[in-house]
Amino acid sequence: MSINIRTDFMQHAELFGNPVLFTNWLIQRDTIPKDWYCYDLRGTRQSPNVKIALVDKTARYHAGTVLSPTPLKRKETASRRVNSAFHLLGEEMTLEQFCEEHSLEYPQDDRKFAIKAASSMKRPFYDAGGGPEAWLHWTCPNGLRPPGTRVLAHLVAPRSRGTEQS
Asked: According to the model, what pLDDT value does residue 49 have?
């Protein structure tokens, strides 16, 4: 399971003396804002939940994920030992609250499209059978859809921060 870094709460932490956001869940790498860094914390076979090493990404012994405004290891380094350099600070906060607390600029949402639940859409896409290409061609105004079809999801352009959607 993964989280939405813009809306979900994460734990405020410190790693190698730098403030970071920590979660036990995965963070999709394509959602990371420009000039931010995301790393996985890896455990061991004997202690999978103990944070032993900081790595770019791990599939085995995942012990958490950190999001940082500063790089925490060199690109050419495979991993960095954590030892006792990781400390939870006891607060849960969103990315926006983290940026406010550390006087950082809130990063722009540079995704071109975002998945939204079809129930909130005025013009959802429908599956008319025939594979992934077929359902992309169905858009139905006013919420009407052909019989025998089902709502899948839709893609929308993300709102700019501070603007209202009509």
From this structure: 86
